[in-house]
Amino acid sequence: MTETRDPVTGPETAAAVLRRIAPSALLPALVYEIGNGAIAPIIALVALAEGASTAVAGLMLSMLGIGRILGDVPAARLADRLGDRRAMVCASTVTAAGLAVCWAVPSIVALALALLVIGACNATFYLARQTYISDVVSIELRARALSTLAGSHRIGLFIGPFLGAAAIAVWGTRAAFGVAILSTVATGVLLLLVPDQEHAGDRPPAHRGGGSTTAMYRAHQQLFWTLGLAVLAVGAVRAARQTVLPLWAEHIGLDAATTSLVFGVANAVDMSLFYPSGHVMDRLGRLAVAVPSMTLLGVGMMLLPLSHDALLLGVIAVVMSIGNGIGSGIMMTLGADAAPARGRTTFLAIWRLLSDSGNALGPLVPAAVAATATLAVGVSVTGLLGLAAAAGLARWVPRHSTYATPAMVRAHHATIRRGG
């Protein structure tokens, strides 16, 4: 088991680090995501039941993403003012209130506004938990901690729909909002009961606040227009994957049950890879995961139009899930690597804004190309974007992360040993 040495507390294993941050970060993240998973399948259904058109129901699905984009930058100020753990408590509380509106108020306008607020709260929660782990875990174990955080996110989203379905079977469609309320309230209680962790002793503490978002952007403009664009492309390709798989399944005539089975197997593969991903990043550098992840996603998308039956579609879906799974936590890890000590939260807010913008734009890429050509061409173009993202990461990650390659990892370990 890998050890890291804190100058104050001595050596700490990866398992010990994960146990230490589980009550204050990993478990709350999992429980919080159960709520998001519970409501994801029923947002459009609730809108349709209130008389919305199909187009408006589709717009409701995008409200959470739009809310996240709108909330990314303000989230930094809130986290700096309240502290990461208290910001997560605040986000959980307001999310519960927004979910109560979704559950109790039969109005499309109320649903849309509540989903925007919930999306903004998600931005606060995600930013605060990333900054928190970046501060309390040593650099040597950062990737494992953040990839495990990403794994907690995936597990919560996986469990949520099942709990939501059980509630719906007994109390009706809107009962899924009740499941989400319970999960967010439980998250807030968990965060209130656990103490803050001490800052990692292998570097100076991050300086909170002290600069505007505009000043941070100007100071790191070159990074955001190089590595930041690669991050945006990564978010776009990952989000598009969730769209193109069901679209292509429908295109080749698969029924809903078969499509769901393909998704289930692929998601199981995805969830199983989060810890190995972090282990490889910590031992061999960030590029050992970042480039293969996007290459597999890109190649998988380009192969997707060649599938004409459930078996081949399933194989390609698994390949894409391997690519997505081994990339668990990579964007959060690269953001933590590149973030300056002064104004770290503000930097990460801009970083997340790029990633969230990619997530929002991703499904539009194959749709826009398909509107002028064919779905196969749209999927292939999205695959090319994945390969472009891999090339961008290969070029720019070494410039902004001191943990990019095996040689950089060895050099960092040697520095730590000399310092110890």
Series of H and E elements: EEHHHHHHHHHHHHHHHHHHH
- Helix fraction, binned, reads over 70%
Instruction: Kindly provide the name of the CATH class of the largest domain.
Output: Mainly Alpha
How many H/I helical runs?
19
Judging from the principal axes of the Cα atoms, what is the shape?
Answer: globular
Low-confidence stretches: 1-10
Total number of distinct structural domains? 2
With strands numbered from the N-terminus, the spatial order across the biggest sheet is 1-2
CATH topology of the largest domain: Growth Hormone, Chain: A
Overall average pLDDT:
88
The quaternary structure here is single chain
Separation of the first and last Cα atoms? 19 Å
Indicate the structural class.
mainly alpha
Total DSSP E strands: 2
* Percentage beta strand: under 5%
Main location: membrane
Keywords: Cell membrane, Membrane, Transmembrane, Transmembrane helix, Transport
Membrane topology: Multi-pass membrane protein
Protein name: MFS transporter
